[in-house]
Amino acid sequence: MTLDADLRRQAEAWRDEDPDPATKAELDALLTRADEPELRDRFAGMLEFGTAGLRGLLGAGPNRMNRSVVLRATAGLARHLLASVANAGARGVVVGFDGRRMSRELARDVAEVLAGHDVVAHVFETYAPTPLVGFAVRHLGAAGGVVITASHNPPAYNGYKVYWANGAQIVPPHDAGIAAQIARVETIASIPRVAYDVAKGDDLVRVCSPEVTESYLALVRGCALHPETPRELGIAYTAMHGVGGPFVRRALAEQGFTNVVEVKEQAEPDGSFPTVAFPNPEEKGAMDLVLALAEANGAQLVLANDPDADRLAVAALHDGRYVTLTGNEIGCLFAHYLLEQGPKAPNRLVVASVVSSPMVVAIGQTHGAWAELTLTGHKWIQNRGLELEAREGLHFVFGYEEALGYAVSAGVRDKDGISAAVSMADLAAWCASQGRTLVGELERMWRLYGMFLSEQVSIVRTGVEGARSIRAAMTKARTDAPTSFGGCRVSAVQDFEAATRRTPDGATTPLTFPPSDVVVFELEGGHRAMLRPSGTEPKVKFYFDVRVDVGADEALDAARARGRKVLDAIVADFRAAFEPG
Q1: Domains with residue ranges and CATH for the chain
Q2: Whole-model pTM above 0.90?
Q3: Catalytic entry in 68, 151, 353, 423
């Protein structure tokens, strides 16, 4: 087969400056067999740098995660920091990595490029959970942070996550500023680098001392509100082949939780993830081993981190069976516990993602806290929290996104599955001291705040026609939407792209969110429906939330059945209106 001449030249030029013999050989093999489809995919463009940093399949070429891409990204980051952050070189950048394939090597490349730009690299030389890196940025007063991780993605992926000097993930305009600097990098040879050992001798690479980890663990210990409660609670835990295990084991033990069993097959970091096809606790089957271990040992609480330990999944024993809690149920339990049982400081703040349950707003309002929803992801949750703290004098108590991401302390400006694990164990122990399980506490909450039922629908439409049909659905939602769904009148429409909230009488008010392709329909009765296209997959996502006021003597099953009937009707009408063809 004859390979397109321009594609061949592009691939050969990339190969010739590739510093990694493995990916160089990979490209050689593709060129030798003239594999045009594979080469076109790998050279379809540079892996895009955005607010999530970089994430992609490991492999050779600009549209993959590899040493060449990371070297370029770090040069761009260093130059942007030097231009944007006072004294960035001396303050430095924290560098950590997880247990995935190539993570250690890529982290070393990051340190060498930083040193080449006279920016100090504060490195963790062993595996570091993502929240520890985020904590270290603020603890050390660094100008930023980088952690090499693909979080809960499949084994073939890796990524490059960036923190700003405030300890939160980057948001605009910094993502665009870094991307612009990356685009200015001409060749790998033009990137200044200092060999790792030489940089250590020159004090441009500094190994993070044990004091950083000890300070982080002290923060984690402080997340327990009721350390006086009995700690006999049985806990089953899994690190999901990730890096959180030693931290969670120690943190639980220091809080008195010694009746802990761990899935041995998943206890050590292993980037091949041999026991799970998809190392995300939300995925079907991912928690099978820890649930079996819990049952074998009669544990009352089940905890699972994802591989970089920034997420937490929870199951609880209730009426003789294990109930796996949803991300919204966990988030609302945390908000309720932290506000009801935590310090009653004035001006408390709770922030959640817009696709999370509005129950968190009801909880916050009941306890006199400032509670609001913002764009999806902790980069938005935390940056909004920092903004409100500075502008309104608020005190951040809790943030969450329904995809198992929780911040139970302002000490880490990102989701943190380690402090969340300790806080959840503390919550479960406190519930047990009150004669309730976690599920029983949820039932108490439904009577206090109202019962909220949530549902998500993801609709895949591939190809050019699929993309066109998804765009058409979003356009219809903005210009030609029904005035009711499931018999519930639309009381307002939030268009995040236009940054406006519009009521049926035509009145509009501005939204505080940055522009985003999301449309939210507020419905009478406190219900809600929304849609947004996925930013990474050919799908549109629908989100639904229904509120049910539970009668004083009403059985919860009866209230749930009433709510389910309303929810099903809203879902049916919404899909009929907006499901892409």
Answers
A1: 45-208 (3.40.120.10), 217-320 (3.40.120.10), 327-449 (3.40.120.10), 451-578 (3.30.310)
A2: yes
A3: 151
